Amino acid sequence: MSIILDTLDTLNAQHELPNALHFAAGPGEFPIAHMRSEHAEATVSVYGGHVLSFTPKGKQPVLWVSNLAEYREGKAIRGGIPVIWPWFGPSSSPDLPSHGFARNQFWSIESSRLQDDNTPVLELVLKDNASSQKLWPHSFTLKVVITLTNCLKVELISTNTGSSAVTCTGALHTYFNISAIENVKISGLDEGQYLDQLTGDDTLIQAGPIHFEAETDRIYFNSSADCILHDSGFDRRVLVEKRGSQSTVVWNPWIDKAKRMGDFGDEEYKQMVCIETANAGTDVITLEPGESHTLTTCISVLDGDN
Ligand code: BG6
Fold first, then answer.
1. H or E element: which one contains 125?
2. Among 3, 190, 257, 305, which residue's Cβ finds the most Cβ atoms within 10 Å?
């Protein structure tokens, strides 16, 4: 029997939930959890602890994944919800991977269960290991807990299992599927101060909703606000609620950067925007030994774009 079939048999034997959770092979032979509730479906890759899709019944997919996404060890999957941790953005050392290592490792399934209302809950875990210790010499447990009701709740729980304090940043780097870039705007960040990562200017203040007409790469500070992605083409609003986060990142690579990225189609910048529930920039988390921090995003869809 191949390794993947063996793995799938074991995962299903231990964690399958009839009609609600099943493991099957995905692209790159990555094991993928298929979750289903009476309201929605979702898929989650064991590689990266990475949500790949979320589709409420009868609706357009909420998450976007590139047609050029690569599914191989050592490479992050372009789309869905990559787990960015334990640092957001480039590291101070050029040898270290941008956006940390959590999205580039195989995670383990910790547990699966049905809540009383038949909502499936899946918990994945990543612990420090030889490869993580080389990149970040700290002991930790990182969990992703995915709860699928009519909204998708994703909790990222970092615990310091070492004997001295650690600091970390991170994000649930959510790629949203949109009808067309000219049809969308983001509300919720009005009057917020932000860092424009393209110019380094951190004194800018948001005026009104965000529209996309050029490359956009911003960290909004001191912001615990929920956001709404309005999409007139899909006639819907996607509500992005959050907790444990004082920063939100908004990103669209636009034309030139899209062309520079090997795992991103030249025209795909028109089909996605990222709204990242983050601990980024000055929003640094300090964990004393034994302490945990939970970063949560809850994503739901409302009819009508206004
Ligand atoms: C965003 C950053 O969070 O992620 C951007 O703000 C970056 O600067 C983007 O380009 C994608 O990063 P990566 O490492 O997945 O290509």
1. strand 120-127
2. 305
Q: How far is the CA of 4 from the centre of ligand 1 (A)?
A: 31
Q: State the DSSP code for 49.
A: T
Find all residues with CB under 8 Å of 204, minimum gap 6, and list them.
193, 194, 195, 196, 218
Residue 107: CB atoms within 10 Å:
23
Q: What b/e sequence results for 237-262 when a residue is b if at least 16 CB atoms lie within 10 Å of its CB, and e otherwise?
A: bbbbbbebbbbbbbbbbbeeebeeee
Per-residue pLDDT, 6: 75
Q: Please tell me the distance between residue 100's alpha carbon and the centre of ligand 1 in angstroms.
A: 11
So which residues are the catalytic ones?
173, 276
First to last CA, the chain: 53
Phi and psi, residue 131, nearest 5°: -70, -40
Query: CB neighbours (10 Å) of residue 116?
Result: 5
In angstroms, the CA 26 to CA 56 distance is: 21
Residue 12: its H or E element: helix 3-15
Tokens coding 304: 């009508």
Those residues whose C-beta lies under 8 Å from the C-beta of residue 220, and which sit 6 or more positions away, are 189, 192, 193, 194, 206, 247, 248, 249, 250
User: What tokens appear for 155 in the block?
Assistant: 């909790």
pLDDT mean values, one per 10 residues, the chain (306 residues): 76 97 96 97 98 97 98 97 98 92 97 96 98 97 96 98 98 99 98 98 98 98 97 98 98 98 98 98 97 98 95
Cα(240)–Cα(97) distance, integer angstroms: 27
Which ligand 1 atom minimizes the distance to the CA of 278? 3
pLDDT for res 268: 98
Q: Which residues sit with their C-beta closer than 6 Å to ligand 1?
A: 76, 98-99, 173, 197, 217, 249, 251, 276
Q: What is the pTM of this model?
A: 0.98
180 neighbors 155 (Cβ within 8 angstroms): no
